[in-house]
Amino acid sequence: MYDNNPTLTGLNKTMDESRQGEVFFEEVPNDGKRRFYIESYGCQMNFSDSEIVASILADSGFAPTRNLEMADLILINTCSIREKAEETVRKRLREFDKVKQQRPETMVGVLGCMAERLKTRFLEEEKLVDMVVGPDAYRDLPKLLEVVEDGDKGVNVFLSKEETYADISPMRLDSNGVTAFISIMRGCDNMCSFCVVPFTRGRERSRDCFSIVAEATDLFERGYREVTLLGQNVDSYKWENPETGQVVNFAQLLEMVAMVNPDLRVRFSTSHPKDITDEVLHTMARHENICKYIHLPVQSGNSRILKLMNRTYDREWYMDRVRAIYRIIPDCAISSDIIAGFCSETEEEHQDTLSMIEWANYSMSYMFFYSERPGTLAARKLKDDVPEEVKKRRLQEIVRLQNQVSYKHNQADIGKTFKVLIEGDSKRSDREFKGRNSQNKMVVFPKKAGLKPGDYVQVKIESATSATLKGYIVEN
Ligand code: 5AD
Ligand code: SF4
Fold first, then answer.
1. 36 and 144 in contact (C-beta within 8 Å)?
2. Among positive and negative, which fits the CA dihedral 70, 75, 77, 78?
3. Same structural domain for residues 346 and 432?
4. Angle of CA points 386, 18, 395, to nearest 5°
5. Residue 200 Cβ < 6 Å to ligand 2
6. How far apart are CA 382 and CA 311, in angstroms?
7. What separation in Å is there between the alpha carbon of 454 and the centre of ligand 2?
8. What's the pLDDT tens digit per position in 35-92?
9. Quick one: pLDDT band at residue 247, thresholds 50, 70, 90?
10. Are 459 and 386 in the same domain?
11. In angstroms, what is the span from residue 343 Cα to ligand 2's centroid?
């Protein structure tokens, strides 16, 4: 985890940690093409962006490599969400420097949120970086590479009000061939006081719904069986057809993607408690292939803190949304993001967060302690006054409780049978498959002849930890 907290184990790790520094690759024959190496940090959106970058580079004659030493171009897609995330990237850049010392012609580019936040300052701070490219400027990469080849620095951190990369077909990197992300919108207009995202990713804009459905259809035809629709706040998806003036909202988009094929599972992330509508919940209930899982970050269980966070809902509103979910979709699992030790948080207010974890019965959570980010509303207006030891202790309490709740949540599944989409071999053994159920829980079970990733199986659960369900196939 960026906050380097060793107590965070199992499923309840931060989203960042579980995908930190993942390397994308796809080996290619010795075809004389120049090679790029790309490493991604942060949220799923960043990983999705790297696939757009790869596609743009492929069109310019580059091929991907997983081997740093072979790369003509090294790219790092960065995250700014917490200070630790940025430190990790800087450390990695030091390592890239070593490659560059051996092969000075290697180009190094910084992409994503840190590029946007630090802009040209990056070039002063990190002398060996050749290129700084913000999240809305990836189309410009081929031109920026030419600038670098001519001996200059390439910089484009322009944030767009329109760019959605709708027409770019992402190159699926390091893919299992079964599950894929589809970016449906970019940016964020919410202005949560702790969050740097509105500054690094700009204004919210939604992508043409037809290009989303076309991408889902293409993935299905290529054998993929699950898509996750991505946006900082998917519930505010809103696309107006410029020809007809017709407006498509998130519930309608969800239905359109669900109709691509009943065998294509649809997931989405992230939902905002202030925006998730009953229409979305009813759409989920209507379609078996829309997964019964909602990531609904609470951030804090206390109304005063929520107000300071500028989340625009309070504890009661959040509880009402959770009740609506369990009423309309009884078998739905809910997960959360939680921040410990936000500005001026008292012990009692922290207790409200703990009680929310139990009350909402989260299947899992991504948990962080508050890290002040320059330029945010909180950095300008509030004092980061909860001592670090207190933040860490509260985070530990949150993690401990969430682990217990996850464990109970999973134990309650013993004896149940779930439809599982096979994703590949389990981590421990090539005699076992792993896959997820609709509730997004990882399920591990012994293989059976004739089955392969992308197939659905019915698995009966025999045992469970706080992170994984284990079972056996009852029918194909
Ligand atoms: N400090 C700690 N956690 C943060 N998050 C966002 N900004 C911060 C911050 N400054 C968390 C929120 C968000 C998740 C992606 O990261 O919980 O939902
Ligand atoms: Fe990190 Fe947020 Fe940027 Fe994603 S959008 S990479 S979580 S700062």
1. no
2. positive
3. no
4. 20
5. yes
6. 15
7. 30
8. 999 999 999 999 999 999 999 999 999 999 999 989 999 999 999 999 999 999 999 9
9. very high
10. no
11. 21
Query: 93-107, 282-296, 372-386: which range is least confident on average?
Result: 93-107
3-state secondary structure of 415: coil
82 and 49 in one domain? yes
Task: Label residue 21 by pLDDT band (50, 70, 90).
Answer: low
Helix (H, G, I), strand (E, B) or coil at 135: coil
Report the alpha-carbon angle 329-470-178, nearest 5: 70
Among all ligands shown, which has an atom nearest to the Cα of 367? 1
Dist. CA 448–CA 435, nearest whole Å: 14
Looking at residue 124, its pLDDT comes to 87
pLDDT given for residue 27 in this prediction: 55
- Say what the pTM is: 0.93
Domain-embedded: residue 444? yes
State the pLDDT confidence band at 405, using cuts at 50, 70 and 90.
very high
Q: Report whether residue 81 contacts ligand 1, using a CB cutoff of 6 Å.
A: yes
**Count of CA atoms in the C-beta half-sphere (13 A) of 176:** 20
Residue (of 212, 222, 224, 290) closest to 258 by Cα position: 290
- Omega within 30 of 0 (cis) for the link into 376: no
CA distance 416 to 83: 42
CB of 297 within 6 A of ligand 1: the answer is yes
Helices 250-258/209-221 angle, 10° precision? 20
Q: How far is CA 50 from CA 111, 141, 266, 401, in A?
A: 9, 12, 21, 35
Number of domains in the chain: 3
**Residues 277, 302: Cα–Cα separation, whole Å:** 22
Q: Is pLDDT larger for residue 27 or for residue 42? A: 42
Cβ partners under 8 Å of residue 427, min gap 6:
434
Last residue of a domain, one of 156, 191, 223: 156
Residue 26 has pLDDT above 80, yes or no: no
CB 370 less than 6 A from any atom of ligand 1: yes
**Ligand 2 centroid, distance to 183 Cα (angstroms):** 14
Contact call for residues 353 and 301 (beta carbons, < 8 A):
yes
Ligand 1 centre to CA of 221 (Å) is 36
The answer on pLDDT for 23 being more than 70 is: no
Tell me how far apart the alpha carbons of residues 469 and 426 are, in angstroms, rounded to a whole number: 12
First to last CA, the chain: 38
- Which tokens belong to 236? 């505010």
Strands (E), 270-369: 293-295, 333-340, 364-369
pLDDT, residue 269, reads 97
Domain extent, residue 137, equals 25-156
Does residue 13 form part of some domain?
Answer: no
pLDDT for 30 beyond 90:
no
